[in-house]
Each structure stands twice: as structure tokens, then as C-alpha cells.
Design brief:
The chain has helices at 7-15, 34-37, 52-62, 69-89, 122-135, 202-209, 241-244, 270-282, 303-311, 368-385, 405-418, 425-436, 439-443, 445-459; strands at 2-3, 21-25, 42-43, 103-104, 114-115, 140-144, 146-153, 159-166, 171-175, 179-181, 214-215, 220-227, 248-250, 287-290, 321-330, 333-335, 347-349, 354-355, 395-397, 477-479, 482-484. By secondary structure, it is of the alpha/beta class. The chain folds into 3 domains: 2-219 and 329-398, FAD/NAD(P)-binding domain, CATH 3.50.50; 221-327, Flavocytochrome C3, Chain A, domain 1; 405-487, Fumarate reductase/succinate dehydrogenase flavoprotein-like, C-terminal domain (Methane Monooxygenase Hydroxylase, Chain G, domain 1), CATH 1.20.58. The strands form 6 sheets. The protein has a 5-stranded parallel beta sheet, sandwiched between helices. A 4-stranded antiparallel beta sheet has the order 9-8-7-19, covered by helices on one side. The structure holds succinic acid (SIN). Residues 39-40, 239-241, 365-366, 368 line the site of succinic acid. Pathway: Cofactor biosynthesis; NAD(+) biosynthesis; iminoaspartate from L-aspartate (oxidase route): step 1/1.
């Protein structure tokens, strides 16, 4: 059983053939998945002179060397093969007039290394092809319109069954010999995110409640440039590739915000840029992306950005784009070994809900679709070779109570404040105390999950990657294993 139909879940389902798979998801097809919304592409060392070790090195630098080095090397080495596999399925990656893959550049990469399809519609193009392949696969039964509600454990503590709930509220128990969670991220827990509505952390919360170990749960990536829509939780992304093509971050007076802050300037690792912009926003100032000097042909790569801006009444060829940092990606998740197994027998995880250590303390741009394809395919192929049937559950586990909307709203506001790009022991401790003091919050699944992120963030008193403590004793970040107060990291 695979829960979640983004890139990772679909790749597991496809690669598990001929073993029968039940694929559980909210909708049938790409809509509502973070994968389909991905504007960045897939990072792969396929360009002239590029090598997997260079891709791996950039991944480690972005991740503040908190990464699992073996996982990083495996990912970087597997990337060109993943592109070939997607091409064989029919993904129409963008190519130059010579037929070679066109390569774009994004933050933290030392060169152009990002493969796109349909310009900034890479996720949508890949999802279309993967969905078509799944529709044509007789071993996959796609159970759409359902969410995972509970996990059934056997007397020996192995996953044996699940309960799913359909949109009419009907609950059905189903046997599951192997359960793969590919349920995505946690952005919906915060007040501003680039994630879709379904990315609310429910899969992660359920796995933790069932006894799966979590890892690196305090590491949350804020994307620097979500479109600053005046109100609303789910903000459209303005892809980093726009900065790769020459757009610049500026303040109200047109001063370049990233100049002198980091050697890579506007293309510094995402956490560095997000902190810089967050400080400006916290000081009551606005932040803009100036893409006006992009030449007309460059805009062909950004149909999604043009459409998003048009919906907001802005023409980015002539006007500045208002941007703000927003929660984008969870580096932490269900702790998995290199094969995708959790500590709970029969429970596996892949994609954003999992944590193999590959992203370290801050994910490198365009490594997440890649992780979904590489790890999803490998996990599916492995599970496809094993047998087994589900059994009856001796014990059912759910994630916890659902809070009232008012409790949910105050929890979101508190989490956004405490787990933002700039963190302090005071706000983290205040959030932990406030949840503990409110039984409705403490018993809710969101409250429980929030504590699993807040407590390690409070305990980690030194800054590392996306976890930046303004009250750190040393008050500076650690990169490449070397403490440095360079790069404008002083709060
Ligand atoms: C982006 O296009 O800026 C996001 C890409 C990513 O999250 O890797």
C-alpha cells in the first residue's frame, strides 16, 4: 500500500510491478500534489565538465554538512540515470537547438545543473507522464478520494492493516503487508507556505504516533521568494530559477539586498537568502524581486511565473514582484535507512515525509523531485521483489484529536513565529509551554507534531543550516563544518 501520489509515491507504485499495489490519495491525477506545483527542476550532473561529486559537494555545503554523505553520493550518482528513465517514459525535458538538455542554475549550485520541462512547469510535466504510466499499469489500484486515518499493528508490532477515510466520511479497513508513506511535507501547519493544502504533516504525525522514529524534525526550509499575496496561507512560488536567469532581490529603494552578503549573492543557499529577507520583513520593510532586465526570450522559460503574476495584476517584465519567505520543505521526517525502511517493521517512507539524511540541515535546490524519483524507484523495485500479505490488526493507532479551527489557527501562528528563519530559545520555549498549558492543543495531532519539532529546536542551541538561533552563544552559522561569522550571518 502506497499513501501519497506525488512523484515519490507514483515511482514506488510503478517500480513495484508486478506486485499488486493499492495507491491511496486525495485525488486521482496530479492535482493537489506539491510535485505538480514544483517549478524548479531536477538537479543532475549531465552538463559538460560536471560530475556527480560536484553535485554532491554542493548538496553538502547547502546542507551544512549535516547530511549523510553516503546518501548524498548515491543521490548525485543516480541523478543522470533518473533523467534517462524519465526520458524513456516520455518526459519532454527542455533542450537546446543542438538537442542537448538545457541546463538552468539555482541557489547553492556552483554551475548550471538543473534540467527543466516546460520551463518552470517541470513538476507538472513529470507528474503527467508518471500518472499516465500508472493509469496503464494493471498492478496498481488507485484508490482516490481517500486519506489515511489509522495504522493497524499486529500483535508482534508489525504493520498489518490501515484504515482509510473517503470524502463522504466512510471508513474502511484494508490489509497492508507493506505500507509506504509518501505523504509530503508540513507547510499547512504554518501561516504561510508554498505547499498545497494537503501538505499538513498528517502522515508524519501518524507514523510518529505509531512508534516510527523521527529524524532532524527541527530543520524546516523557508523559500525566500513566495509571492507576497496580502492574505492567504498558501502562497504561489516564484521560482529561484528566475534569479538563476538574472533577477535580483531589492528593497523599496532598489538597493540589492544580497550584495555583499554571500559570495553567491542572489543565488546563495536558500536559508541564507531567506534569513536576509525575513529580517527586512520583520523590520516592517518590503522585499521585491526585480526581473525587469531579463530579455524577452528568457521569459519563455517562466510561463508559470508570468501566469501567477498576471493573476495578481503584475507584469514582471515591467514591474517588481513583491516576495516573502514562506515554509517550503521539511528536511526532517520519518527516519529511514538507505533502503527506505523505518524502525517500525512493514513501514517505509519516501520523499519529503522521510528523512534519510540526504538533505542535511538545508536542502539544495532541485534535489527533491530527484530524491522522489531515485528513492521512490529503488524502494518500489525492492518491495516488488518481496511477498507477504497483510493481517489483522491487534491494535489501531491514530495521530490524535482534530483541533477546533481556532486552536489550529493559534497553533499555526505560534509555530510560524517559533520555527521561522530566525529562532530564539525564548520563543521556542514559550511555544512549548503554551502547547503544554492548553489540553485541546496538546492532545491534537498538530499539537503533538508541533512539539516533536519544537523540542529539538529548543535543545539545538547552536545554529546549523536552516536552523538559525539568533541567541546562539557563538551567534553565527556553521557551514562546511567550519564556524564562520561571514556571509552576513550575524543576527
Ligand atoms: C524553486 O523553483 O525555487 C524551488 C525549487 C526547489 O524547491 O527545489
Amino acid at each position: 500500500m502506497v499513501v501519497g501520489a506525488g512523484v515519490a509515491g507514483l515511482c514506488v507504485a510503478l517500480a513495484a510491478a508486478p506486485r499488486p499495489v493499492i495507491l491511496v490519495s486525495r485525488s486521482r491525477g496530479p492535482s493537489g500534489t506539491a510535485s505538480a506545483m514544483a517549478q524548479g527542476g531536477i538537479a543532475a550532473a549531465v552538463g559538460p565538465g560536471d560530475e556527480a561529486v560536484c553535485h554532491a559537494a554542493d548538496t553538502l555545503v547547502a546542507g551544512a554538512c549535516h547530511n549523510d554523505v553516503g546518501a548524498v553520493l548515491d543521490l548525485a550518482l543516480s541523478a543522470p540515470g533518473a533523467i534517462d528513465w524519465l526520458v524513456s517514459l516520455g518526459v519532454p525535458f527542455d533542450r537546446g537547438s543542438n538537442g542537448m538538455l538545457s541546463l538552468g542554475r539555482e541557489g547553492g549550485h556552483d554551475r548550471a545543473r538543473i534540467v527543466h520541462a516546460g520551463g518552470d512547469a517541470t513538476g507538472r510535466e513529470i507528474m503527467k507522464v508518471l500518472c499516465t504510466a500508472v493509469f496503464a499499469s494493471s498492478h496498481v489500484h488507485w484508490l482516490a478520494g481517500n486519506t489515511l486515518e489509522a495504522i493497524g499493528l499486529s500483535a508482534g508490532g508489525r504493520v498489518a492493516a490501515v484504515r482509510v477515510r473517503d470524502s463522504a466520511g466512510r471508513v474502511e479497513p484494508l490489509q497492508a503487508a507493506d505500507l509506504v508513506l509518501a505523504t509530503g511535507g508540513i507547510g499547512g501547519l504554518f501561516t504561510c507556505t508554498t505547499n498545497p493544502e494537503g501538505s499538513d504533516g498528517a502522515g508524519l504525525a501518524l507514523a510518529l504516533a505509531a512508534g516510527a522514529k523521527g529524524r532532524d524534525l527541527e530543520f524546516i526550509q523557508w523559500h525566500p521568494t513566495a509571492f507576497a499575496v496580502p492574505s492567504g496561507r498558501h502562497l504561489p512560488l516564484i521560482t529561484e530559477a528566475l534569479r538563476g536567469a538574472g533577477a535580483e532581490l531589492v528593497d523599496d529603494e532598489g538597493n540589492r539586498l544580497m550584495r555583499g552578503t554571500h559570495p553567491l549573492g542572489d543565488l546563495a543557499p536558500r536559508d541564507v537568502v531567506a534569513r536576509c529577507l525575513w529580517r527586512h520583513r520583520q523590520a516592517g520593510r518590503r522585499v521585491w524581486l526585480d526581473a525587469r532586465k531579463l530579455l524577452e526570450p528568457a521569459w519563455h522559460q517562466f510561463p508559470g511565473v508570468l501566469a501567477t503574476c498576471a493573476e495578481q495584476g503584475i507584469d514582471p517584465r515591467r514591474e517588481l514582484i513583491p516576495v516573502t519567505p514562506a515554509v517550503h520543505f521539511h528536511m526532517g521526517g520519518i527516519a529511514v535507512d538507505p533502503q527506505g525502511n523505518s524502525n517500525l517493521p512493514g513501514l517505509h517512507a519516501v520523499g519529503e515525509v522521510a528523512c534519510s539524511g540526504v538533505h542535511g540541515a538545508n536542502r539544495l535546490a532541485s534535489n527533491s523531485l530527484l530524491e522522489g524519483v531515485v528513492c521512490g524507484h529503488a524502494l518500489g523495485a525492492r518491495l516488488g521483489k518481496s511477498g507477504g500479505r497483510g493481517g489483522s490488526a491487534a491494535r489501531w493507532v491514530d495521530a490524535g484529536a482534530v483541533p477546533t479551527p481556532a486552536v489550529g489557527r493559534s497553533l499555526s501562528a505560534m509555530l510560524t513565529d517559533a520555527l521561522g528563519p530566525l529562532r530564539s530559545g525564548r520563543t521556542l520555549a514559550a511555544a512549548v509551554d503554551a502547547i503544554g498549558a492548553d489540553p485541546a492543543m496538546a492532545c491534537s495531532w498538530q499539537g503533538r507534531l508541533a512539539l516533536r519539532m519544537l523540542v529539538p529546536a529548543l535543545a539545538r542551541t547552536r545554529s546549523l543550516g536552516a536552523h538559525f538561533r539568533v541567541d546562539s552563544a557563538a551567534n553565527h552559522n556553521i557551514r562546511q563544518g567550519i564556524e564562520t561569522d561571514a556571509y552576513g550571518e550575524i543576527a
